[in-house]
Amino acid sequence: MKQAAQEAMAFKGTSVVLAKRECSAICKPQTNYAIDLEQCISCKLCITKLGCPAIYIDNEAITISPQCSGCGLCAQVCPLDAIREVSK
Ligand code: SF4
Ligand code: SF4
Asked: Which of 1, 13, 21, 24 is deepest in the core (most CB within 10 A)?
């Protein structure tokens, strides 16, 4: 998706990118993710590797906001399996 967006932006003239999934900004996921603070060691890999706007630091605790779209990428990045899927 990132490559497609970059190519579209570099194209001279009108360009359109078609996505296979619905927009994550407007879809309502059935699940999202939360941090298990007992497992988390605050290595911040989930923040520095992804740049997901739903992950932030609140009072020194890694936190996931309700804006989480449930993509699950952060759970794949965490070396300690401290990010877990939770039902909404
Ligand atoms: S990657 Fe995992 S252990 Fe590291 S800060 Fe994020 S949740 Fe915590
Ligand atoms: S599951 Fe996806 S949208 Fe939710 S916090 Fe992790 S990376 Fe961000």
From this structure: 24
CA nearest to 35, candidates 75, 77, 87, 76: 75
- In tens, the pLDDT along 3-14 reads 888 899 999 999
* Mutational test site, ligand 2, from 24, 36, 49, 69, max ligand atoms within 8 Å of CB: 69
> How many structural domains does the chain have?
1
The pLDDT of residue 32: 87
Name the residue of 71, 83, 88 to mutate for ligand 2: max ligand atoms within 8 A of Cβ.
Answer: 71
Q: How far apart are CA 87 and CA 29, in angstroms?
A: 9
CATH number at residue 42: 3.30.70.20
